[in-house]
Amino acid sequence: MPQLIAGNWKMNGTLAGIAAYAAALRPASPGAELLVCPPAPLIAPLRAALDGAPVALGAQDCAVKRSGAHTGDLSADLLAELGATHVILGHSERRADHAESSATVSEKARTAIAAGLVPIICVGETEAERDSGEAETVVRAQLAGSLPEELAGQTVPGVVAPGIIAYEPVWAIGTGRTPTEEDVAAMHASIRAALRRQLGAAGATMPILYGGSVKPSNAASLLALPEVGGALVGGASLKAEDFLAIASAAARD
Ligand code: PGA
């Protein structure tokens, strides 16, 4: 399976910036799968500007419910209609800013799957949890709570994996710091074992992305680690050149 390089723009990006970003991505053929998750209102314009280029689009969150009286929430079905194929769920910024529990993330993942979206479910420990030696326990508990059982049997037409995990240590997000290669490899192995236990055969192949301060200079070494199926890239995905440099680091390995 090719590695997936997913960009998470967070609350950045403008309509005016779409054309230049798309123009930089359109001719690229990096060998890795590319996915861009802009703010939801930019999904359709970016889709149009990419003009058929093989770059998938995703959202950064969706509602638990599929429609109805939920002011301000975003329906997974509408995101799919706008051109999204993926949705990031349970990012640590949403878990922190919006008090999202793993149970809520699991419900959202079920909704996303029902709407035909591939959920990218984020897990990761805080710095205090790592320092106290609890990182793997915390991440395993997040996985146990955040993954709906549908992930064990679900297939989405045309999509290889029904779900994706992103391991993002909270203390590495936006800080320029990353765990050691040994720590990333150990955590990814632990996540793989947990996925097999929880989801059986589907858990054996589900991609596990690494996220947290991935940039062109460290991408090749992180992406070469065992069980690293790609990267979830925040800050460095905002510049098309950096995003593509990370993607070509994946292709070389
Ligand atoms: P970063 O963010 O690459 O800016 O550290 C990653 C993320 O939050 O997904």
Mind explaining what this structure looks like?
The protein has 253 residues and is an alpha/beta fold. The chain is built from 12 helices and 8 strands. The chain has helices spanning 18-25, 43-50, 76-82, 92-97, 102-114, 127-131, 135-146, 150-153, 181-199, 201-205, 216-223, 240-252, and strands at residues 4-8, 33-37, 55-59, 84-89, 118-123, 164-167, 208-211, 230-233. Strands 1-2-3-4-5-6-7-8 form an 8-stranded parallel beta barrel, surrounded by 7 helices. Helix 3 (76-82) links the parallel strand 3 and strand 4 (84-89). Helix 1 crosses helix 2 and helix 11 runs parallel beside helix 12. The longest helix is centred in the last third of the chain and has 19 residues, at 181-199. The protein is globular. The chain starts with a strand and ends with a helix. 46% of the residues are buried. The model has no long low-confidence stretch (mean pLDDT 94). The structure holds 2-phosphoglycolic acid (PGA). Residues 8, 168, 173-174, 211-214, 232-236 line the site of 2-phosphoglycolic acid.
Structure keywords:
binds 2-phosphoglycolic acid, 43% helix, alpha/beta, 253 residues, 12 helices, 8-stranded parallel beta barrel, 15% strand
